[in-house]
Amino acid sequence: MVIVMGITILTLLGVILAMLTSLFFITLGKLKPSNNTKKVFIDSSTLIDGRLLSVASTGFLEGYQLLIPRSVLRELQFLADKADDKQKRERARAGLDTASALERLVRANVEIYSDDIEAKVKVDDRLINLAKKYNALLLTNDFTLIKLANAEHIDTLNINDLSSSLQLEYKVGDRLAIEITAKGENKEQGIGYTPSGTLIVVNRASASVGKTLNVEITNIRQTSSGIMLFAKKVDK
Questions:
Q1: Which listed residue, 2, 28, 127, 224, has the most CB atoms within 10 A of its CB?
Q2: Which of the following CATH numbers is that of domain 175-233: 2.40.50.140, 3.40.50.10320, 3.40.140.10, 3.30.465.10?
Q3: β-pair type (175-179, 212-223)
Q4: Which pLDDT score is estimated for 148?
């Protein structure tokens, strides 16, 4: 009887151990980055652009594996040391600083990619070849490189395009007609929405709920929860 109970307990322990082991590897698999993570090769024009660091810091690029080829760093180093124009030297040094800062970012998966820096191939052509080899994207602000990539059916990311798409719908001084739909937190304020759904707070409009007023944008506040517009009533 004791022997049977002992065997039963050992069997149960074995099952539990197997379940825990399986759970461990499942969890580990979820924590490991996927081999299918989309690769993005970064060129010098993007590193020189200081906005890249800000974009990466927000976490928007977390789903990508960002790769900086050594040939791109070598190109920046050459410009930083030997470019004839002082401004070009300073921008190249800023690009090297950006590359270094990107590697330290917690919210970005950044690696230096060791390509053949001795090969007598132009950096742009090398980037095209790497993107084709790994079915990767190119992150570049270079108009010519973008055109070349499009001709090779390579997708590109462009910070200038991102910036344009995030341009504010309105600016201070713009005028529009807005329907006041509710009272604001301040008893003198009325609230409405632009056609795209942006909240607009109109001063001295609390008595105009249900009416359409002509207003002028006086202030724009941008927060992590969105954009708020502030306005005053004006004559038509």
A1: 127
A2: 2.40.50.140
A3: antiparallel
A4: 95
Cβ 216 vs Cβ 231: under 8 Å: yes
State the helix-helix crossing angle for 123-134 and 143-151, rounded to 10 degrees.
Answer: 40
Tell me: the pLDDT tens digits for 134-148?
A: 999 999 999 999 999
Report the candidate in 37, 36, 45, 35 with the shortest Cα–Cα distance to residue 149: 45
**Residue pLDDT, tens place only, 69-121:** 999 999 999 999 998 888 889 999 999 999 999 999 988 899 999 987 666 78
Angle between helices 86-104 and 70-82 (to 10 degrees): 140
DSSP letter assigned to residue 84: S
The tokens describing 89, both together, are 């030297």
Place 219 in a pLDDT band, splitting at 50, 70 and 90.
Answer: very high
Listed in sequence order, the residues at least 6 apart from 149 whose beta carbon sits closer than 8 Å to its beta carbon are: 128, 131, 138, 140, 155, 156
Buried b (16+ CB within 10 A) or exposed e, 63-98: ebbbbbbebbbebbeebbeebeeeeeeebbbbbbeb
> Which CATH code of 3.30.70.870, 3.40.50.300, 3.40.50.1010, 2.40.128.110 fits the domain covering 38-165?
3.40.50.1010
The phi-psi region of residue 85 (left if phi > 0; otherwise alpha if psi is between -120 and 50; otherwise beta) is beta
- The C-alpha atoms of residue 207 and residue 187 are separated, in whole angstroms, by 9
Neighbours of 139 (CB within 10 A): 25
